[in-house]
């Protein structure tokens, strides 16, 4: 969806070519402290990041109150054992992150079935109608899902969930060919922001070269336990798989 709204266009322009840092921590992780997400966000701003991606109303509110002046892509992770849909799965979660101060709404826009028995991408029309003044950040796994998200109102599309759906779960890294195709086919209709499986500045720069509007980087910057686990897995001849840990369900204590 190509927006003509001046405020939305200005916000999108502020992100162009820049780094968005995903600042997240769960209460069952070793890095968790009550103020950790704010410290992550402060570090991101110090480094020159153009935006933040924050999970849960509680942590969005904390970062908002820190007055860092960076736009917040808000999401709300809620896990259920009967579905792989966990990013802002229902309107209840959307309402919560908007109330907390999210500037951009991120939600699962795959074709996967939710805990409630709907298809994840069906929520986007409802969100677009209820929150017309907010940008929507569509977390997708395939080009087809990104196209549908754009057609239904998302101004931003990203392959965030590539690797987290049944059809893509065995991947090891970023699919740069798919990202390039997404930029070619959707670049005139939506901003393609690369998120997922980026581990170095060179990885990020490659995505900008391919046509991405901006990049989101999370675990390679803000989650040292995952960085360490990747090293350990390699040195132990891959007897373990750090991605199994990364994809594990967390407790919903922040709900």
Automatic annotation (TrEMBL):
Pathway: Amino-sugar metabolism; N-acetylneuraminate degradation; D-fructose 6-phosphate from N-acetylneuraminate: step 3/5. The keyword Isomerase applies. Keywords: Carbohydrate metabolism, Isomerase. InterPro entries: Aldolase_TIM, NanE, RibuloseP-bd_barrel. GO terms for biological process: carbohydrate metabolic process; N-acetylmannosamine catabolic process; N-acetylneuraminate catabolic process. The gene is nanE. GO terms for cellular component: cytosol. This is Putative N-acetylmannosamine-6-phosphate 2-epimerase. NCBIfam families: PRK01130.1. Its EC number is 5.1.3.9. GO terms for molecular function: N-acylglucosamine-6-phosphate 2-epimerase activity. Pfam families: NanE. Belongs to the NanE family. Converts N-acetylmannosamine-6-phosphate (ManNAc-6-P) to N-acetylglucosamine-6-phosphate (GlcNAc-6-P). It catalyses: an N-acyl-D-glucosamine 6-phosphate = an N-acyl-D-mannosamine 6-phosphate.
């Amino acid at each position: 969806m190509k927006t003509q709204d001046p405020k939305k266009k200005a916000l999108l322009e502020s992100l162009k070519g820049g780094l968005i840092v995903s600042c997240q921590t769960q209460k069952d992780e070793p890095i968790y402290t009550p103020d950790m997400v704010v410290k992550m966000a402060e570090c991101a701003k110090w480094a020159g990041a153009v935006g933040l991606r924050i999970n849960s109303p509680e942590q969005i509110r904390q970062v908002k109150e820190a007055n860092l002046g960076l736009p917040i892509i808000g999401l709300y992770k809620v896990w259920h054992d009967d579905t792989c849909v966990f990013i802002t799965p229902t309107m209840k979660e959307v309402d919560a992150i908007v109330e907390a101060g999210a500037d951009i709404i991120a939600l699962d826009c795959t074709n996967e079935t939710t805990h409630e028995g709907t298809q994840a991408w069906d929520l986007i029309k409802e969100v677009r109608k209820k929150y017309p003044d907010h940008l929507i950040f569509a977390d997708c796994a395939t080009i087809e899902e990104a196209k549908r998200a754009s057609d239904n109102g998302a101004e931003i599309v990203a392959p965030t969930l590539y690797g987290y759906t049944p059809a893509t779960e065995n991947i090891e890294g970023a699919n740069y060919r798919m990202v390039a195709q997404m930029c070619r086919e959707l670049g005139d209709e939506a901003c393609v922001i690369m998120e997922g499986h980026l581990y170095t500045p060179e990885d990020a720069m490659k995505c900008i070269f391919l046509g991405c509007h901006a990049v989101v980087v999370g675990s390679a910057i803000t989650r040292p336990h995952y960085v360490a686990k990747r090293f350990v897995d390699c040195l132990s001849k891959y007897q373990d798989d750090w991605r199994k840990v990364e994809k594990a369900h967390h407790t919903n204590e922040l709900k």
